[in-house]
Design brief:
Layout: E1 2-12, E2 15-20, E3 25-29, H1 32-41, H2 64-86, E4 93-102, E5 110-120, H3 125-139, H4 141-145, E6 151-159
Helix pairs in contact: 1-2, 2-3
């Protein structure tokens, strides 16, 4: 088995920076409409700038299987951001760690993926857990596109 790890960190209402263990970085973002919907519901919208500076990707390049994890984490995070904003949860930061385990074969598909959602700020853990499950299992188009044989585990935690 081989393991692939990526992380995405919220940098705007609807924008995340992705990194991997090789030092690659890139930004992913939702639509302007989604950004506005979330911004309108944030308890304190001043925690994010009105516009984010343009960001260049860095590093030699993401591997395709890492991009799949980034897509899954990013899609889930965008949905989670809207759900938590609708609940008026005061999310001051959000990080999603994605770890995928692959078989040692050709092809080498994922057999197991763990998504760990860490919210920073005065966020209700039970609300975060419910919202993360909904984001991944009901609203995320990337998750819905995965082979059903892949076990996807959703973990949530709150950090001050």
């Amino acid at each position: 088995m081989s393991v692939v790890n990526v992380s995405i960190t919220r940098v705007g209402p609807c924008a995340y920076d992705a990194t991997d263990v090789l030092g690659n970085t890139m930004r992913l973002a939702g639509s302007a409409e989604l950004d506005q919907q979330i911004r309108e519901r944030l308890p304190d919208p001043s925690i994010f700038p009105e516009t984010l500076p343009t960001r260049e990707n860095s590093g030699p390049g993401f591997r395709p299987m890492a991009l799949l994890l980034i897509s899954l984490a990013g899609c889930s995070a965008l949905d989670l951001g809207l759900i938590l904003a609708r609940q008026r949860q005061d999310v001051r930061g959000l990080t999603i760690e994605a770890e995928g385990t692959r078989v040692e074969a050709t092809p080498a598909p994922y057999t197991h993926i763990t998504l760990t959602f860490t919210a920073h700020g005065p966020v209700d853990l039970a609300a975060l857990e419910r919202a993360a499950e909904l984001a991944v299992r009901r609203y995320c188009s990337v998750a819905d596109s995965l082979d059903p044989k892949i076990e996807v585990v959703v973990l949530s935690k709150v950090s001050p």
